[in-house]
Amino acid sequence: MKHSLQRIPPYTRSADFYDELMADIDYKGWAEYLLVLAFKLDINTESIIDFSCGTGTLLYYLSQNWSRVRGMDVSESMIQKAKEKYPNMEWITADMLTVFMPLDFSLGINLHDSLNYILEKDVLKTYIHRMQQTCKPGQSLFFDFALPAVIDRYFIGQDEVKKMKNDDLVYRHHVYKEQEKICITYLEITHGNEKVVEIHEQKIYDFQEIKKMFIVLPSQDLLFLEEFTFSEANENSERLLVVIKND
C-alpha cells in the first residue's frame, strides 16, 4: 500500500462505481428473504426506514412490496447516487449514530455490515440500546453483522484489480489485524494521472460479544439468526442478523 497517496473519506470516489463493485450481491434475493422472515414473524413491513442505505438498491427491492420507504446514509455521495437511481424515493443524508427510530415507521433496518464500521464497543453498545429503547410497540428492527468466520473466506487473500466502466482502475486490498479484530480494506483508485485511496475499517465482533450488547426489555423479543436462513446463529456463523420485535 502506497501511503503517500491522497486519502479521501470512505464512499466518496467509490460511490461512482459502488454498484459495479458489489455486482455479486443478490439484493433482490436479500430483500425477498427479509420480507419472508418478516411475514413468518408477523412483523409489519408497511413502512421501512434504512439507516445505512448506501446507493439504495436493497431498499428499492423492499419497496416493491408496496411499502413506504425512506433511506438515509452518512455519505452524501452515496445518497446522491441513490437519488439518481431512484428519484421517486425518499433519501436523506444523516448519521445513523445521531438518529432514532421514527414513530411513523414500522420496521427499521441497519444492514450492509454498517454496524461493523463502529469501531468502539461502547459506542456500538450505546447505539444499540438507544435504538432498542426508541423502538415502540408495533415496531421492529433488523441489524446485521459480519462475524469472524467471514475473514478467511471473503477478505484474506482476496485482493483484486478491476477496471470500472467510468475508467477508474481500482485495486482492492484487505488487511486483518487479528489482535484488534480490525479488518482494513484499501481501495486504491487511479483515474488518469490522479491516484487516491479510501481506507475502510471494520471491527469484527464475535457472536457472544454482540449478544451481550443487547438488553432485554419488557415486550421485546430478540432473535439471533444466521443471516439468509431461519436458523439460530452460533459462534461459527459467518453473518448474524439480529431481530428486535416489540409487541
Detailed description of the structure:
With 247 residues, the chain is an alpha/beta fold. It folds into two domains: 59 residues; 174 residues, Vaccinia Virus protein VP39 (Rossmann fold, 3-Layer(aba) Sandwich), CATH 3.40.50.150. It contains seven helices and twelve strands. Strands 4-3-2-5-6-12-11 form a seven-stranded mixed sheet, covered by helices on one side. Helix 2 crosses helix 3. It is globular and about 60 Å long. The model has no long low-confidence stretch (mean pLDDT 94).
Descriptive labels:
alpha/beta; Rossmann fold; single chain; seven-stranded mixed beta sheet; 247 residues; 2 domains; globular
The whole-number mean of residue pLDDT values reads 94
**Helix/strand order:** EHHEHEHEEHEHEEEEHEE
Query: If helices are DSSP runs of H or I spanning 4 or more residues, what is the number of helices?
Result: 7
- Broad CATH class of the largest domain: Alpha Beta
In order across it, which strands form the biggest sheet? 4-3-2-5-6-12-11
Low-confidence stretches: none
Strand content range: 25-35%
| Helix percentage | 10-25%
Shape designation: globular
Largest sheet: 7 strands, mixed
- CATH topology group of the largest domain: Rossmann fold
Distance between the termini: 50 Å
Number of strands: 12
